[in-house]
Amino acid sequence: MQLTEGKVAAALSLLAAGLLAPMAGHAQEASGGTDAGVSAPQRAPNAYDETASEPGTLVADSAVLFYQEDDDRVRAIEAEAGLTWNRSNGSTFSIKGTFDALTGATPNGAIRSNSVERFEPPQQRAKAADGELCPIDGCTSSSGTYTIEPGKLPVDKTFHDRRYAVDVGATVPVAEGLKLSVGGGYSHEFDFTSRSVRTTLAKELFRKNTTVSLGFNYEYDTIRPYFGIPDALGDMGSYSVGKSRLKKVYNVVAGFTQVLTPEWLVQLNYSYGHSTGYHTDPYKLISLVDRSSGDPFFSLYERRPFERNRHSVYFGSKLALGSFVTDASARWYRDSWGIKSVTFALSEHVPIGRSFYLEPGVRWYHQTQANFFRYFLYLDEPTPRMASSDSRLSRFGAWTLGLRGGAKVASNIEVYGSAERYWQYGLHFDRTLPGNLATTDLFSGSKSISVVGGVRVTFR
Amino acid sequence: MLGAALSLGGCAHMGAEPWQRDVLARKSMQLAREPAILSFDEHTYFSKEAASGGRSFDGGGCGCN
Amino acid sequence: MTDTGLQVHSHSFSAMASPCEIKVETDDPALAVRLGAIGEVEARRIEEKYTRYKPTGIVSRINSAQGEPVEVDAETAGLIAYAAQVHELSEGRFDITSGVLRRVWKFDGSANVPSRALVQKVLPLVGWSKVRWDNPVITLPAGMEIDLGGICKEYAVDRAAMAVRQAAPDVPAMVNFGGDLATTAPKREGRWRIAIESLDPTKDTGGVLHIAGGAIATSGDARRFLLKKGRRYSHILDPRTGYPVEHPPRSVTVAAKTCLQAGTLSTLAMLRGREAETFLKSEGVQSWVHW
């Protein structure tokens, strides 16, 4: 059959229509488819039954966190020191400094492979004259070229960073039962700077049994990846397309706190966040996989939307039973990227002896995946507009089991601490995938241990 | 919901009288107990999970997410 | 959104290794859910039937027949007959037996270009002309294989759209399986808006195409190639030579009446390499080529 040019389309139109027309029969129908206690003044049986934050005090609080992920992944030390001045007129002023240092390996987004995989950062138009990629000893968040052994999760092994942050806040009574809070923060990393300002107005109503509040927070971030801004969805190793990008976050929180009984307090918050700018993780890649063999062929830099809208509803409850306190909370979250999540947490404050307490707690979290999340892309599919294989945007669940404790060791000194185990769980294998993909472990979630120790001194 | 709760707030049987506030004033009853542990936790969850905030503002101030 | 309560509802799922979506414009959310389920059932049926990866499937039955004739059902026969005719129309460029070339052309990161001898060794196993096709009986020479993957997704889009249309003839819906899509009826409010990579997002259209109806399919090689000694080997293999097509576009998007037709045209254009745009122009089809 010899056809002149221009006839292929016409012939195909007939053929396709012919194939589809007589077969409506194949279609299948979907089958549907404690009563108020009498409060005589008495000495508190446990130190934590004493009244909180008295006016006219200066409180110095400092704490250290040790954080370690399994399989020698991220390790972090975070230290925090703060001063809070509670004036006798009801106003408070606070300042807090935070330092953290991160080292270890973080998943780069590529999938496991049966052969050695090699990864490289974006090339920069002009390299430093000495050819040294990391001229400062602190280096940057991400690294140069590295290789990953067969079957191992691709991780960026030289991931390290340091963060310095300072936060100031003030709360002043502006009228009877009306308090205004203002604050601001500045945080600096080698490749990331964040500045934020916030304000909250809180009004107490009905003999202080109800508090309503409205807060606003604005954050302005600068992202400066060490190797520049990668060409989103461009080839790994291709030239960077800029030095830095911005992100702005607006956040509104409407809060409502209600005393239900003299022992029971509940809180309900609605929060809306809107962010615009660079949401892409400049260090994350996504594998291109050959559909026939199921082997990764190459990697692209990921790309996320320019905008994100987040909604969450938080419900918290504190119920005292004797000196015991049950803390329960729930959070429902959804955002414009298609992620929905739920979080439930429960802990029990258990007084021990005269000056000690323990608080065992459990937390469960679950999220659905972002609509542009893909474990990988196929070589022969058209590149989507957005794609990320960041496990934080995947469908997964997480448990936390923890134990907190504290002790009043002198009239003005408290020590406290916590130990927590956190683990994520999710899809490991998808047997319906082609070739070697069916036996490739797709999971890159983390498990970690956190230990915190702190001390608080109150000066009068 | 807020409206309903507000009207409940005005109800005589709800809440605590000023002389019944000793339990609510306890350290153990404060909504943000051990703020340092809370901020470490939120920082960790912010860097590991897609959802954030709820209890307070959801910013992060870090490049970890 | 509007006073009429008309809204576009969306049902998402994952099938055929692609994110899938069925959008329905209606004021009845329950109807949208039902139509979404109908489309999904059809997608899953076709995926299950034509997957190469299940030994129970019809494709593996044909491929493992060792030279024996296999009689196929009417639907499969229709697809094979279609592929045979497209093979002829494309002068042998489109060939459902070309999959075996993937045994030597491994796009697995090793960047190994196979030797000429190796390509010559598998080439005898490629070529629709070597297949005996007496509808509905197919006889493959031992060692040869067919793969309907190249037309299955587009076919599934059309079939799912048909199923949705059959259940609700006047309700506008759009079936989108991994970027290949078909609409069942024009939207009542505005047009269907589709973002296309081949369109320049910096232009005033924002890379968004507005269509009243019909179907759209995209074939892509994107930036994917083997690089050896400065020479780029594309991912698209020409079954006649056993070698990659030279200089194919990054992607070709075609609009047509059915998704199957659009998808076949975009594939044929890719197989023309440098001549892709010329081919589409001479065919007079609405298309967008991204180099």
UniProtKB/TrEMBL annotation, chain A:
Q: Specify the signal sequence span.
A: 1-27
Q: Where is this region: Disordered?
A: 27-53
InterPro entries in the cross-refs: DUF3570 (IPR021953)
For this UniProt record, the keywords arranged alphabetically read as follows: Signal
Matching entries from Pfam families are given as: DUF3570
Could you tell me what this protein is called?
Answer: DUF3570 domain-containing protein
Q: What is the lineage of its organism?
A: Bacteria, Pseudomonadati, Pseudomonadota, Alphaproteobacteria, Sphingomonadales
Automatic annotation (TrEMBL), chain C:
Sorted alphabetically, which keywords does the UniProt record give? FAD, Flavoprotein, Magnesium, Metal-binding, Transferase
Carries keyword Cell membrane?
no
As its record notes, the protein acts as a catalyst of:
L-threonyl-[protein] + FAD = FMN-L-threonyl-[protein] + AMP + H(+)
Q: Which molecular-function annotations from GO does this UniProt entry contain?
A: transferase activity
Which Pfam families does the UniProt entry name for this protein? ApbE
Class of enzymatic activity (EC top level):
transferase
Give the matching SUPFAM superfamilies.
ApbE-like
Keyword check for Metal-binding, yes or no. Answer: yes
EC number(s): the record gives 2.7.1.180
Q: Which cofactor does it need?
A: Mg(2+)
Family designation: Belongs to the ApbE family.
Name of the protein in its database record: FAD:protein FMN transferase
The scientific name of the source species is Novosphingobium cyanobacteriorum
Classification lineage: Bacteria, Pseudomonadati, Pseudomonadota, Alphaproteobacteria, Sphingomonadales
